[in-house]
Amino acid sequence: MNTTLSRNTQKALYLQLAEKLMEDIAAKRLLPLEKLPSEYELTRLFDVSRVTVRQALRVLAERGLVVSRQGKGVFVSGPQVSQDLNALRGFYDSLIAQGHTPETEVVHFAASGPMARKAPFGDYSETAAFTRIYRVSDAIVAIAEATVSCFGKAISRQMIEQYPVYTLLHNVIQRKVERATTAIRAAQAPPRIAELMGLDGEGVVLRMDRTSFDSEGMVLEQTRFHIQPEIFAFELNVSGPMQIASSLRKVE
User: Fold this and answer.
1) Residue range 19-64, pLDDT digits in tens
2) Could you give the number of structural domains in the chain?
3) Of the candidates 29, 45, 76, which is a domain's last residue?
4) In this structure, are residues 176 and 153 in contact, taking their beta carbons and an 8 Å threshold?
5) Structural domain boundaries, residue 205
6) Which residues pair with 67 in a beta bridge?
7) What is the rounded CA–CA span in Å between residue 52 and residue 48?
8) Residues 145-192 pLDDT 10s
9) 65 and 100 share a domain?
10) Cβ of 47: how many Cβ atoms within 10 Å?
């Protein structure tokens, strides 16, 4: 990071500082969701007042390049992504539909693992459980912990790495998703998830629990998504009045 500012120019120091930080963000020297140096550190690095630092950070915030987290500091903004709750579409496919190019990484895989919650699987008890990281523009947008019913098919880690969940269900397991239930809430990230996301011990994420069914009511998959709240939004469109209150339930 170049910390030299010119005192022999008409351009205000806060604008010079803002431009240097913007250059570092554009050049990926400051990565999406990375924490910026504190106000005190920036005053020391650039030999400016705290007022100058705050003015520079305000410029970056107005341009949507940084976000401030109460009590935690200022962070580089991540990619803005959303999930359409009206469409029966997988998480990966939703990112593709918005023009993103997601990268995924499977960090855990286990065949024949137990289902996360009780479900009507009938005689098909074999499952594949895995954890997948979703990245957009080098930023982790979500981590999914999924369990898929195999229905007698031999599911390998290579298949999990190759296919999104819904594609795996349709093309490999040959079961079509007809409906899905989704529950969304804010929750503290489990230690393992917080570590993967680079969050501190009190990191809060959006937790989305999804269960998908076929036409016979058989559970095909159960997935718990841990989603970065600052960069993600859910969208719901309905015809007529939206009865929000009737959908609210007390969280146990």
Assistant:
1) 999 999 888 888 877 889 999 999 999 999 999 999 999 999 998 8
2) 2
3) 76
4) no
5) 81-237
6) 75
7) 6
8) 999 999 888 899 999 999 999 999 999 999 999 999 888 888 999 999
9) no
10) 12
